[in-house]
Amino acid sequence: MLLVRLRQAPGAVPTGPIRLSEVSIMPMPRIHYRVIGQDDYMLMIDVAADGSFVIESGDYTSHAPRKGQLDAEHRSRLEAAIAGLGDSRDHPAPEGAPGFLAELTIGDGPHVQHYRFWEGALTAEPDLRTLVRELEVIDA
User: What is the pTM of this model?
Assistant: First the structure.
């Protein structure tokens, strides 16, 4: 999937062929996903705009970071999941609720979207769940 932005007046609808000069290619935004769980569990996934990624995880032991590059298919699925996200929002855990807490940041600078949620919120938030599941299956 390729995300593009047309250079034209807001609300204008193209009526003919689109010229290359009217298109700007939007790189995939940076993704930072951080999970804190029970028993000192931690997971951090960083995906750069070029599709390179770093995964750090651990519990009471530490593990060497895993690094890699997304293939075109996985990158496309991530871009589609990002495109389907709603507005930034928080879903704090109810008092005493078990499960992990997570922070998800998409983009940098003025176009950043930020989500904070607990595990149970994913059942009610299909757009977040889709992106989180795509991040969880990145394999180095």
Answer: 0.77
Angular region, 109: left φ>0, alpha ψ -120 to 50, beta rest: left
Instruction: Show the domain range for 96.
Output: 28-136
Q: What is the mean pLDDT of residues 74-94?
A: 92
**Is residue 10, in this structure, part of any structural domain at all?**
no
Is 94 within the bounds of a domain?
Answer: yes
Residue at 14 is within a domain: no
Per the structure, how many domains does the chain have?
1
Q: What is the pLDDT of residue 81?
A: 95
Question: Does residue 108 form part of some domain?
Answer: yes
